């Protein structure tokens, strides 16, 4: 983990209130595990807490990384108003990242995401593609208007999309995509998911006895390094035991914590 003032080299609005920001700095050389995040200080003196944002893509050759975020409040609004050439105080990489050691060439894997939980799955997909895996991306969005990265995911594997309002792809939730794909592929070697608690619970329930199901939690964080206990969740084995999402997660194996 390091701290660095990273330079903004590009920023585009992918969909209403959803931005892709490209940052450049030596910190990227530390970013080796998909699913990790960086903790970015808001460039306003009155907003003290950093914002955790997952890494959507890392390019070690040109020392850049991409983060995708949705404007939800004053902090992310300040990010969206930052300009190319500005520098942001970044801390990271943080979190444990996805375990892909067990995936081998031609293994079928599911990569499942919803809404603003989709970004970290792109870098994960790139790494799985490098291993020669056969990837099925199952992405869910509220509507066509807030979709993004359709071409990018399609270049890595077979992309299936569901929208809540039926404006694109299958009408409904991501669980319906699982029902659609599973009879075709059979049991996948591994399942990786990131999104809202409802999506993660659906994945966990569907693959309840599967040995390789990895779920990335989204929680509000304060320190981001495991010191303040603001982002704890309960262990499923012993609810009296807490797990810190920022430090011990954000990725947990299915059945490890209560979602």
TrEMBL record:
Pathway entry: Pyrimidine metabolism; UMP biosynthesis via de novo pathway; orotate from (S)-dihydroorotate (NAD(+) route): step 1/1
Keywords: 2Fe-2S, Electron transport, FAD, Flavoprotein, Iron, Iron-sulfur, Metal-binding, Pyrimidine biosynthesis, Transport
Residue positions binding [2Fe-2S] cluster: 223, 228, 231, 246
Residues at which FAD binds: 51-54, 68-70, 75-76
Biological processes, Gene Ontology terms: 'de novo' UMP biosynthetic process
UniProt-recorded Gene Ontology molecular function terms: 2 iron, 2 sulfur cluster binding; electron transfer activity; flavin adenine dinucleotide binding; metal ion binding; oxidoreductase activity
PROSITE patterns assigned to the protein according to its UniProt record, in alphabetical order: FAD_FR
Cofactor needs: FAD; [2Fe-2S] cluster
FAD-binding FR-type domain segment(s): 1-100
Cofactor stoichiometry and binding remark: Binds 1 FAD per subunit. Binds 1 [2Fe-2S] cluster per subunit.
Function statement: Responsible for channeling the electrons from the oxidation of dihydroorotate from the FMN redox center in the PyrD type B subunit to the ultimate electron acceptor NAD(+).
Family note: Belongs to the PyrK family.
Self-association state and partner proteins as the record states: Heterotetramer of 2 PyrK and 2 PyrD type B subunits.
Name used for this protein in its record: Dihydroorotate dehydrogenase B (NAD(+)), electron transfer subunit
Organism of derivation: Vagococcus teuberi
Upper classification of the organism: Bacteria, Bacillati, Bacillota, Bacilli, Lactobacillales
